[in-house]
Write a structure and sequence with these properties.
heterodimer, A: mainly alpha, B: mainly alpha, MetI-like fold, 68% helix, elongated
Chain lengths: 213, 234
């Protein structure tokens, strides 16, 4: 706990900043309602990512982290994927909407997450490769199972930021936009709630780190 | 790294002259990508905006690396605070600041991006420095009790060499950070033309009527991403 104290101080500072955010709106604006309707699509997108990334890392193994095509897919910023979807989306299909957002989200997040997980896998030469394919698959599965919760907690805030960029470019209200609106209307309590959620996610990933240590 | 530092000169490029009477011209031999709404040659604007973005990224990356070096050397006790800072999404952190300050100036954006990138670069740098700290060379330095100015003179170039290895990562982080902020309308004002600002102007028409300038900006971003991509990115 003492080792984590400076980290908690950062979150307390963040909370104080959120609660003490200066400024006021010209006209007293009511805080926006939480976008509950966006929660299910966001959870669906995270679930798709949380299932696809470990699966691909399991199939590809640690060598995947050094593959050039994966690095090329990972290199462009989230912004580019959203802009490309916007530019290439056929007009006859109507606005990109949730499908376009999901596509951009997976294109932006999946390559990076696969590499993140592949890098965390231990080397397989000479063992467990010498024991056969079944042993390799089992070793990868065990590592990924152990890593999964911590990875999810550590990466959720990053995905939230990606979501904000994609939502803004594709004009789709969602969780990222909620943070932006609360900043605009100076909803200090709402922002404090967000900071607490982010702190909780950090604590979850941090606790697992200390367990591992 | 030296090649990328040359882009710092891009920050000194002058603004292009405006001529609204020549606005939105179609591509021609004289203007290969046409002109933008304010009559600037689109190709020239793309080149100037790219050079400025690259120069800005180089300046931010330098700042981030210096801070990361300092944190990696001195910040053992603050490892937990740095971990918390790493899990705070930079964009979410910058939004309230930009709102409070009524927008961020070029210098403020650069300083903030550099400060926010430093905690992300610190773990890789710490790993290199810890190896050195456990080496016989450092043990000898401590045993002989060399004064710190002399230690600094001998080892600072080595430390900077270690930091320089992370320059491409810091550079690309700063480049995309500025582009994203500018595209969201939170970056420096119209006085600083950049790739992100170009995209911010072109994004609304990408869905219905993409212009050659919009496509070229997207192509420039993709090209920059691919030329700087490497499996060793941290």
């Amino acid at each position: 706990m003492r080792r984590g104290l400076p980290g908690w101080l950062v979150w307390v500072l963040g909370l104080a900043l959120a609660l003490g955010l200066p400024g006021a709106t010209w006209k007293g604006a009511a805080p926006p309602a939480f976008p509950w309707q966006s929660l299910l699509p966001a959870a669906g997108a995270v679930a798709a990512l949380a299932a696809a990334a470990p699966l691909l890392a399991w199939l590809g193994g640690p060598d995947l982290a050094r593959r050039r095509p994966l690095a090329l897919l990972e290199a462009p910023p989230d912004l580019l994927w959203a802009a490309l979807i916007l530019a290439l989306w056929p007009a006859a299909w109507g606005p990109p909407g949730f499908q376009g957002w999901l596509l951009a989200f997976l294109a932006a997040a999946l390559p990076g997450e696969v590499r993140w997980l592949a890098q965390a896998l231990p080397p397989e030469r000479p063992f467990p490769e010498a024991w056969g394919k079944a042993a390799v698959r089992r070793a990868r599965r065990l590592v990924l199972f152990r890593l999964w919760r911590r990875w999810l907690a550590a990466r959720l805030p990053v995905w939230l930021t990606a979501t904000l960029v994609l939502e803004r470019v594709l004009g789709l209200p969602g969780l990222g936009t909620d943070w932006l609106t609360r900043v605009a209307v100076r909803d200090r309590l709402g922002l404090a709630g967000w900071v607490l959620v982010l702190a909780g996610l950090w604590a979850l990933s941090h606790a697992r780190t200390e367990d591992a240590a | 790294m030296k090649g990328r530092l040359l882009f710092l000169g891009g920050l000194l490029l002058p603004d292009l002259a405006l001529d609204p009477f020549l606005g939105s011209l179609a591509p021609s031999l004289r203007h290969p990508l046409g002109t933008d709404d304010l009559g600037r040659d689109a190709l020239l604007r793309l080149l100037v905006a790219s050079a400025r973005s690259l120069g800005f990224a180089s300046a931010c990356a330098l700042l981030a690396l210096m801070l990361a070096l300092l944190l990696a050397w001195r910040g053992r006790r603050t490892a937990s605070a740095l971990s918390a800072l790493r899990s705070l999404p930079p964009l979410l952190f910058l939004l309230p600041l930009a709102a409070v300050a009524g927008g961020l100036s070029l210098t403020a954006t650069g300083l903030l991006l550099g400060a926010l990138a430093a905690p992300h670069l610190e773990p890789a740098l710490r790993a290199r420095i810890e190896t050195f700290r456990q080496s016989p060379a450092w043990a000898l330095e401590r045993t002989l009790g060399a004064p710190w100015p002399s230690t600094l003179r001998r080892w600072a170039p080595w430390g900077w060499q270690q930091a320089a290895a992370l320059f491409p990562t810091a550079w690309i982080t700063a480049l995309w950070g500025e582009a994203t902020l500018a595209a969201l309308g939170l970056g420096p004002g119209p006085g600083h033309d950049s790739l992100g600002r170009l995209l911010a102007e072109e994004l609304p028409r990408l869905g219905s009527d993409p212009s050659p300038l919009g496509w070229s900006a997207l192509a420039a971003i993709l090209l920059l991403a691919w030329t700087s991509a490497g499996p060793a990115r941290a």
